[in-house]
Write a structure and sequence with these properties.
heterodimer; A: 0% strand; B: alpha+beta; Alpha-Beta Plaits; 4-stranded antiparallel beta sheet
Amino acid sequence: MENLLDPVILFFVLGLVAGVSGSDLRLPESLYETLSIYLLASIGLKGGVELANGDPGGMILPLLASIGLGMLIPPIAFAVLRASKRFGRADAAAIAAHYGSVSVVTFAVAMTFLDRLGVPYEEYVTTLLVIMEIPGIAVGVVIARLGKEKGGLALGRLAHEVFFGKSILLLVGGMAVGYLVGPDRLGGVEILFFDLFRGALAFFLLEMGIVTARRLADLRSVGAFLVAFGIAMPLFSGFLGVLAGALVGLSVGGTTILATLAASASYIAATAAMRVAVPEANPTLYLTASLGVTFPFNIVVGIPVYYHMALWILGAVG
Amino acid sequence: MNRQLVTIVTEAALERRLIEEVKRLGAKGYTIVKASGEGARGVREAAWEHSKNIRMETICRPEVADAIMEHLSSKYYEHYAMVAWTTDVEVLRPDKF
């Protein structure tokens, strides 16, 4: 319950209430875009500065673990969805790709959750975020194409969409800037990028609540199975993430973040990529599952659960 | 002088591709505005990056209009939210189009 009394979460709930009640509250589109650019740049910059501070040698195993999770989760999700006999190959593959990739906002909420509890985490977690965004999408595309004889897929366009889409560009670019200047030469930008971060995140989540509420209308049309999948899948992949974190020796904080990354489902990069690579898949299915079910679940319930899983498993190991 | 006005209402995700393809098929210019609405694929309320719509218009010679319509129906109609139509229009400077 204590987890819920956080302005970031409560603003999300407020957005949900506004959306469900049909209020006219909306952030102007340009503000929404500005905030999302700000959040991505801040996360990148913070990650870069911390990387400059820390010892990058320790990150090799965790990096491999995140790539492994990103590649392992989509085939599992795909097999579960196909076994239910409710989804065609294209739909199942597109949904699976979303669960293999990550949600940056969920990651940011997990960081602020740990910051609030005063739980430290490894300085290179942002690198894990960036690394994990890609494999899930790639594996999802491969699964979707397996059943077809000929390609016809514009790989160049897809790669461009993924690598030069704004999320990867800003995260990687922000990290490069942060790494190059290091903690000592920030020269005041930390006031904008770090100190105001939580407030901006709360503001952004207000809009996310409104957007999520609009997806709720689609819940009935996608069926109870996909809703249950949207809750069970992140719990399962979060557990895999905790195991992987324990295995490669991450701290409780780092393990919680890795688990959150494994559990989170993309709704920006993967969605854009799937629309290009698997146009025959129905966007309502993957958007409703990732944005309408898994995102709110992770924000409100999932992150504290992964934290307690991490405490429990690492406590048992160490 | 008669020309055809081709109007396409579709997902914003296709914008860059359509610009490229419409020009390749012979259109000399185009106008794009943001749009929202509702149709067979549900409400496209432009609330979210993936539910944004655009309306793209181009004035061109009838054979170019036919080529564009043919291209759209074979490439996009099946899997994308798209409506396209043509209208006869009169223009003062036919050479421009």
